[in-house]
Amino acid sequence: MKIKIHANSSQEKLKKIDENFYEIWLREKPLDGRANDSLLKLLKKEFGKSFKIKSGLTSRIKIVEELE
Questions:
Q1: Domains in the chain and their CATH numbers?
Q2: Are 10 and 19 in contact (CB under 8 A)?
Q3: Fewer beta carbons within 10 angstroms: which end of the chain, N or C?
C-alpha cells in the first residue's frame, strides 16, 4: 500500500485515493521517527492489522506492507 504523509497537521485523518493509495494527516512532527510511529499506530487502529514501513522511512511517500 502506498501512503502520502502530511506530518505536523492540525488533525489526524485518513483519505482513500484508490485501492492501494492513501493520504494521511498526522499531528506528529517528522522528528526522530515519531511521525512513522504515529502512522503505524493509526493504521493498526483503522485496519485492525499490524503494518511495517517497507520503503520511504525519511520520505513523505511511503510503501507499507501488512505483517502476517
A1: 2-66 (3.30.1200.10)
A2: no
A3: C
pLDDT over 90 percentage in the chain: 99
For the chain, the C-alpha Rg in angstroms (whole number) is 11
Q: How many whole angstroms separate alpha carbon 52 and alpha carbon 40?
A: 7
Q: What does the pLDDT look like over 7-40, one tens digit per residue?
A: 999 999 999 999 999 999 999 999 999 999 999 9
For residue 61, the one-letter residue type is I
Sign of CA dihedral 68, 40, 53, 11: positive
Q: Cα 40 to chain center, whole Å?
A: 6
Hey, what's the cell of 39? 502512522
Q: Compute how many other C-beta atoms are within 10 angstroms of the C-beta atom of residue 63.
A: 13
C-alpha cell at 59: 520520505
